[in-house]
């Protein structure tokens, strides 16, 4: 389908950002004519000076974000169109310059004496910035002298070489062999590998699995070195800044207590018998004597597609999300009716789905709606992000509106869980029920169990290196294999290929990131349950969480909604959900 053939009701309304490209050009030109931030250097030592700088910075950020939003949404409508590609490039390079022009502020603030910062924290004029300032104050402990900080900043680029080398290997130079797929020889890309792993053809899965890992095995020593290099980079920063461990450093930056990480790992570890049971059940249903890791991806249920038109899918979401109350549902409808969403798949349009929003304008959602059950969930998911953005932008000042990664997948997952529960409750169709339960089980398998397995791997690898043990292909593979056994149990073979899975995970080059997926889904399940059980009170707490932006640390924000990740309770609740779904699924199988 061509974009010009799509009815207006299915298109987002970018004129809400700029009425025309000419308006965009004007806004961009005025940014370029810009501000001179060098005049603020050395002025942050007084409240007046700081306030003047922060206001100026905010004013430019707000305009620049609007310019960026329009450019990237326009580009994504048709990525072949070079005009908007160059819009994106222009504003991206503006941001780089803007960031470097204002980069003096963090070190300048960090260098201020505690009593000056305390004065700022008590100053009502700086209230919008109190959380940011409290973080600056806390980070003083780990900040070095001005000269040392300059050296550290200079070291940033060379220290990223290990990670860049991995990306180069993994995206370009890894010699992935060809495989015969749908009648023709095709290179086994990462994308095709994942398609085959999720497919029904077992022989093909086995072939792809072996080919794929054989390519990694050939360069395993190199990848062990790039990974070790990346861990050493973390250790370098940890040591020179004086953190206790790399984990502590990463969590400090996120303002998350280490107990959250420990509780996650402990709780998921305790629940691994459930995963073992699920894997054994999969093997039984699939009818295999022996199961391998390439058998754990395909859905156990033949397609049970809802095949709904977009209108019906949207209405179904409204019904499923009804427990979120009238205010939420009104906004959910507003999104559909007032041009937030770009619905249809058209030629050249960016694939997938996302939500994108900036301060001062309603959020936007990109879909490529197909009549699959999965795509109904995608509507609920992306609108979950959008309404989180909407509430935070509406209720917070600019400086506190942008919610952090730690909480970013909560609102989207709450919506998925509510919709899923509604469908399970209302459908009479056993096949659909099984499909939905399988969907839920796999969501928890991949997001809660698997990401925690990764989190444990990272933690242990870092701990080994911190204790002076060099990391190499042997000890990394041994560690990974042990973890794989612990997580998946005896119903599946743990072969030499899965032992090197660590070598193909790009996320490991952003250390201590993936655990946030696991805590996010845990919080979401806990919050969805509370909404269903407690009704209005839980809803109003949840709306307060959605309205919280980044006004305080993420764990405290989640506590507002009733998910206390410093306790075991939400993890136990999530696992109880998994157990219940597993039991029901087994009964139906
Ligand atoms: Zn998402």
Task: Tell me about this structure.
This protein has 589 residues and is mainly α. Among the domains are: 128 residues, Up-down Bundle (Butyryl-CoA Dehydrogenase, subunit A, domain 3), CATH 1.20.140; 220 residues, Neurolysin, domain 3. It is 64% helix and 3% strand. The protein is built from 25 helices and seven strands. The strands form three sheets. Strands 4-6-5 form a three-stranded mixed sheet, covered by helices on one side. Strand 5 and strand 6 form a beta hairpin. Helix 5 runs antiparallel to helix 6, helix 19 packs antiparallel against helix 20 and helix 19 crosses helix 22. The structure holds zinc ion (ZN). The site of zinc ion has 4 residues, from helix 17. Zinc ion binds next to helix 17.
Please give a quick description of this structure.
With 589 residues, this protein is mainly alpha-helical. Helix content is 64%, strand content 3%. The longest helix has 37 residues, at 430-466.
What is the fold's blueprint, element by element?
Elements: H1 21-33, H2 47-77, H3 82-102, H4 105-110, H5 114-122, H6 130-139, H7 146-159, H8 161-173, E1 178-181, E2 184-187, H9 190-197, H10 202-218, H11 220-241, H12 246-254, H13 258-270, H14 272-286, E3 291-292, H15 310-320, H16 326-337, E4 341-342, E5 354-356, E6 364-366, H17 373-395, H18 405-408, H19 410-426, H20 430-466, H21 473-488, E7 492-493, H22 515-534, H23 536-546, H24 554-560, H25 569-588
Parallel strand pairs: 3-7, 4-6
Antiparallel strand pairs: 1-2, 5-6
The structure holds zinc ion (ZN).
């Amino acid at each position: 389908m061509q974009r010009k053939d799509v009815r207006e009701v299915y298109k987002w309304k970018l004129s809400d950002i700029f009425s025309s490209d000419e308006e965009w050009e004007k806004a961009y030109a005025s940014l370029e004519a810009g501000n001179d931030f060098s005049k603020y250097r050395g002025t942050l030592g007084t409240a007046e000076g700081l306030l003047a700088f922060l206001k100026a910075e905010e004013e430019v950020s707000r305009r620049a974000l609007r310019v960026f939003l329009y450019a990237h949404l326009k580009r994504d409508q048709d990525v072949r169109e070079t005009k908007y590609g160059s819009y994106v490039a222009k504003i991206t390079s503006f941001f780089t310059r803007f960031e470097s022009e204002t980069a003096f502020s963090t070190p300048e603030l960090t260098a201020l004496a505690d009593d000056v910062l305390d004065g700022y924290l008590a100053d009502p004029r700086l209230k919008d910035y109190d959380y940011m300032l409290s973080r600056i104050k806390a980070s003083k402990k780990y900040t070095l002298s001005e000269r040392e900080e300059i050296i550290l900043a200079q070291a940033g680029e060379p220290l990223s070489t290990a990670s860049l080398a991995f990306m180069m290997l993994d995206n370009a130079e890894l010699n992935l062999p060809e495989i015969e797929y749908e009648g023709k020889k095709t290179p086994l890309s990462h994308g095709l590998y994942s398609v085959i792993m999720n497919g029904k053809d077992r022989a093909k899965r086995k072939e792809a699995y072996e080919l794929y890992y054989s390519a990694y095995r050939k360069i395993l020593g190199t990848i062990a070195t790039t990974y070790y290099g990346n861990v050493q980079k973390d250790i370098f920063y940890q040591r020179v800044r004086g953190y206790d461990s790399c984990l502590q450093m990463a969590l400090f930056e996120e303002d998350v207590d280490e107990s959250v990480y420990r509780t996650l790992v402990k709780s998921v570890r305790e629940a691994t018998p459930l995963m073992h049971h699920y894997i054994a059940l999969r093997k039984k249903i699939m009818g295999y004597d022996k199961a391998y890791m390439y058998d754990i991806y395909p859905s156990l249920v033949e397609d049970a597609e809802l095949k709904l038109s977009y209108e019906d899918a949207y209405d179904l979401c409204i019904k499923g999300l009804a427990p979120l109350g009238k205010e939420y549902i009104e906004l959910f409808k507003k999104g559909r009716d007032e041009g937030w969403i770009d619905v249809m798949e058209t030629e050249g349009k960016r694939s997938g789905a996302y939500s994108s929003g900036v301060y001062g304008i309603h959020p936007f959602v990109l879909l490529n709606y197909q009549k699959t059950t999965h795509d109904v969930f995608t509507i609920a998911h992306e609108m979950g992000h959008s309404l989180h953005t909407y509430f935070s932008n509406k209720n917070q000042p600019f400086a506190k509106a942008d919610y952090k990664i730690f909480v970013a997948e909560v609102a989207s997952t709450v919506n998925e869980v509510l919709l899923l529960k509604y469908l399970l409750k209302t459908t009479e169709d056993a096949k659909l029920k099984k499909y939905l339960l399988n969907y839920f089980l796999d969501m928890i398998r991949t997001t809660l169990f698997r990401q925690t397995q990764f989190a444990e791997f990272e933690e242990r690898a870092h701990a080994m290196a911190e204790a002076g043990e060099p990391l190499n292909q042997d000890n990394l593979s041994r560690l990974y294999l042990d973890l794989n056994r612990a997580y998946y149990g005896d119903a599946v073979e743990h072969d030499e290929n899965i032992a090197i899975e660590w070598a193909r995970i790009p996320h490991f080059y952003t250390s201590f990131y993936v655990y946030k997926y696991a805590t996010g889904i845990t919080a979401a399940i806990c919050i969805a349950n509370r909404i269903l059980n407690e009704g209005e009170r839980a809803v109003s707490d949840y709306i307060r969480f959605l309205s919280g932006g980044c006004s305080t640390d993420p764990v405290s924000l989640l506590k507002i909604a009733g998910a206390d990740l410093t306790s075991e309770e939400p993890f136990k609740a999530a696992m109880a959900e998994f157990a219940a779904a597993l039991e029901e699924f087994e009964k139906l199988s």
